[in-house]
Design brief:
- It is a single chain.
- By secondary structure, the chain is mainly alpha-helical.
- The chain is 63% helix and 0% strand.
- It has 14 helices and no strands.
Length: 440
């Protein structure tokens, strides 16, 4: 047998030397038959895989509900201060306009005094709220991060807690295939979580910076419609990660197997796409649709396509009608309308006739709308051609031809006295007009 003196291990490369020293240094004799080295390599690989899985779970939690946001934490932040200055001056300007209008219409009495008092109170509320928004958002985000950690990783009855438990004590904890499946599922979930993190953080940053401009609208008279819409968008962004609570009832069913845990993570991927679709205002459907298109272009697997379609459903987009040229009246129509107003002042009522575009305007409008209409018509033709069945053999599509008289049996002669089956041809109808006299 070869000598396994520890001094000989110095001749090996550094990566292999530690396994040689571990083998020769064991006192139980397991290294004599090479089992020590193999066991050490296996244990080290399993430990590395578990550490990788735990690291991925940790990054998932940090991406879905981070403790800090990109939004400014204080009102005197360099990013938030210009918006704060603009919002405060806008609220004060609106309040001054209300005071001037109330002073010019002071003859109306109590309603104007009531309006001025309402504007004063709401202007003070708006200015005070502008300075408190960053701190309130920061405290709410910290509370949500703590709640998310408790809901998804506090014990073995939560989603990530079950995965960590199954990595150590699951039925397939030592199975390389099970470890590979859970690692792949965690990596895919990490990609979706990174997309959630980017869109969510950018959305919170934008809505926090918009806060002074939205709150300044309160100074006119306390109209809270814009503030409620803004608050709904912001809270939807901040509470979006809690959509994963929909998989919480199924956590106990998957406990004990890494493969089933991976199925639960696939469902969580669909939920993360859905929270981008619904939770991120304005650009959420576009981002989720882009992620779906990327996945569908990279794989043909039906399960992957079904997951992204569940997270980002097929939608139709609607845009504003493009603003075209203004419509003005011709001189004759303008004179006619003003004449009708004048006659109405004298008590003569004249019916107003509807207007229509001139011939030149109709031609110009048709040329302007021609590209859009041609594109839509071409798409309809292509869709109809794809939906209609393609007939390669028209004769086969018509079906078998009827049997000819030559192929069939010859007709038998009718017995005497039987009516004929072929009636005699009718004489041609005579012309209905007067007949001309024949030449002699």
């Amino acid at each position: 047998m070869p000598d396994k003196d520890p001094d000989n291990c110095r001749l090996l490369s550094p990566n292999v030397r530690k396994y040689c020293e571990r083998d020769t240094g064991g006192g139980d004799g397991d290294g004599a038959d090479g089992g020590g080295v193999g066991g050490g390599i296996t244990d080290n690989a399993v430990g590395s895989v578990k550490e990788l899985a735990n690291s991925l779970i940790k990054h998932l939690k940090e991406l879905l509900a981070p403790g800090k946001t990109w939004a400014p934490e204080k009102a005197d932040s360099g990013l938030y201060e210009p918006f704060l200055w603009l919002g405060q001056h806008l609220a004060v300007s609106i309040f001054i306009c209300v005071v001037v209008v109330c002073a010019l219409t002071a003859w109306q009495g109590a309603p104007r005094l009531r309006q001025m008092g309402t504007s004063t109170g709401w202007a003070l509320v708006a200015v005070a709220g502008m300075a408190s928004i960053p701190g309130a958002v920061m405290m709410l985000n910290e509370a949500l991060s703590t709640a998310f950690e408790a809901a998804f990783g506090s014990d073995e009855s939560t989603l990530f807690g079950v995965i960590e438990h199954d990595l150590k004590h699951g039925a397939d904890a030592g199975n390389p295939l099970g470890m590979l499946i859970i690692i792949a599922a965690l990596v895919v979930a990490l990609a979706f979580a990174a997309l959630v993190f980017m869109t969510r953080q950018l959305g919170i940053l934008v809505f926090v910076c918009m806060a002074p401009l939205v709150l300044a609208s309160l100074a006119r008279g306390g109209d809270t419609s814009a503030v409620r819409a803004w608050a709904g968008r912001l809270l939807g962004l901040m509470f979006a990660p809690f959509a994963l609570l929909l998989v919480a009832p199924f956590v106990e069913l998957t406990k004990g197997s890494l493969v089933v845990d991976a199925v639960l993570l696939v469902a969580a991927d669909a939920l993360m796409l859905r929270m981008i679709f619904h939770g991120v205002p304005y650009i959420g459907p576009r981002v989720a649709g882009a992620a779906r298109a990327l996945v569908e272009s990279r794989t043909d697997h039906p399960l992957a396509r079904a997951v992204v379609r569940a997270g980002a459903p097929t939608v139709y987009e609607q845009e504003n009608i493009p603003r075209g040229p203004r419509v003005v009246n011709t001189p004759g129509r303008a004179v006619s309308q003003d004449g009708g107003v004048l006659l109405g002042a004298y008590g003569v009522k004249r019916q107003q006739r509807p207007g229509t575009l001139t011939a030149a305007s109709v031609v110009a409008k048709a040329y302007a709308e021609a590209p859009r209409r041609a594109q839509a018509a071409q798409a309809r033709r292509e869709a109809w051609a794809a939906a209609s069945p393609q007939v390669s053999n028209p004769r086969a599509a018509r079906g078998p031809a009827p049997a000819s008289a030559s192929n069939g049996p010859a007709p038998q002669p009718a017995p005497p006295g039987a009516p004929s089956t072929n009636p005699a041809p009718r004489p041609a109808p005579r012309p209905s007009g007067p007949s001309r006299p024949s030449n002699p």
